[in-house]
Amino acid sequence: MWNYEKRLQFPVNIKEANADIAQVIISQYGGPDGEMGASMRYLSQRYAAPYREVAGILTDIGTEELAHLEMVATIVHQLTKNLSMEEIEASGFRNYYVDHTVGIWPQAAGGVPFNACEFQSKGDIITDLMADMNIYFVAILVVLFLEKLLIRYGIQAAFAILIPLACLMWGLFLVTKRNILNGLAVRLCVLGLAVAFVIPCSTHITDIVASDLTAYVDETIQETEDGAGKLNEAMEDGA
Known about the structure:
flat; 0% strand; 8 helices
């Protein structure tokens, strides 16, 4: 049983409609890694928990995912509620509009409808928790992939575009004596150096975090295996 508070977990107050952003954000509502699948995952898996305390934790998590679902739906609603037909046509939102107008309907950003196959419930708490951990590993891999893209293209852009452009602006300032060019040169130089040095530093920090995370995952897997053995022994003794 739930007690519903008639407010969002965090307030959402979007003033300007934007169908392009809405079509991306809606994937967090009903996409493969969205809040609908997350809430159903935990609320279904709780019945396999051998202890009420574990079932209670899974219920708490599933309930919070429902709160996230409500916030995402509100974001999509506010981004689409005042769209004109011209904006719907221009943004490519018309395919969605034909089927649902501006109603909230669970789908991925690519238009694939929500499917219960996107979450797992195997009836075994260890299997379920390992599947849940895999979801977070995917998120970590996405972050690492984005970081590699920044390293590959960010530093290249800094030395190939930003810093040379800053030198050009500074040279024009020396010729024209226009202070605005000097200000642009300084800003571009600072931005280029920031990109060139901050990204490698952040990568080094990520490597440290990743190594700690790997150790934590290995420890968690070992504890899970030990716990599974103890749980099976307890169940056999109880039988």
